[in-house]
Amino acid sequence: MVAAILALLTAILFPVLSRARTQGTVARAHTELAQVGLALQMYADDCGAFPPARTYCSGLEMKIEDYNELPPELYKQGYIKLRKYLDPFNPGRAYKYIAPGPGFANNVKTILPIWVPEDYPHSTKACVPYFDQKTSPLKWAVWSVGPTGGVDMFTSEQRQLPVPRWWWFPYRWDGVIVRLSDGRKSP
Questions:
Q1: For residue 143, which of 171, 175, 104 has the smallest C-alpha distance?
Q2: Dihedral angle, C-alpha 134, 138, 144, 150, nearest 10 °
Q3: Tell me, what DSSP letter sits at residue 166?
Q4: Which residue from 44, 65, 47 is spatially nearest to 56, judged by alpha carbons?
Q5: pLDDT tens-digit profile, the chain (187 residues)
Q6: Long-range contacts of 45-52 (CB under 8 A, 24+ apart)
Q7: At 43, is the secondary structure helix, strand, or coil?
């Protein structure tokens, strides 16, 4: 009888505790993404521009953890410390970063876009690419892959994340946790 009651209580409390743990980790990610945003702004104030974004998209076995890592310039110049800014939902990997303009794709200099909905910030219309920080409504975006490890980045529609809110957790169970340069963020 006692074992049955304990089993019942465990079955009731486990999902509640699991959700609370997830929400706590989401809150941690939001706080750390805000701190990364401050580091990006300090870098831009000191250097006159935001650091270049880097993306890697070669190979058939690409995974979500292999693209858009935080810029190494932030570490090298002491704006952030790697240990402090690892994505809790992507073990051993840093948060993600994208900025329009000069960047690197597979270690080759290029111009990278940020995809922003035409009606930003409402996110009801299709996204368009911005290749220049002067014309883009956003200067950068940073994000966590989210509680489920994120969506597959390598289809044409997904390449538009993280800005449109239809890619944000908790609106999508596999969504990302986002902070944008204008202060907007996922819930």
A1: 175
A2: -100
A3: G
A4: 65
A5: 777 776 666 667 566 555 767 777 888 999 999 999 999 999 999 999 999 998 876 554 555 555 788 888 998 888 988 777 889 988 888 899 999 999 988 888 999 999 999 999 888 888 899 999 899 999 999 999 888 876 655 555 556 778 888 888 888 888 889 999 999 999 8
A6: 46/77, 49/101, 49/133, 50/99, 50/101, 50/133, 50/139, 50/140, 51/99, 52/99, 52/101, 52/102, 52/103, 52/104, 52/112
A7: helix
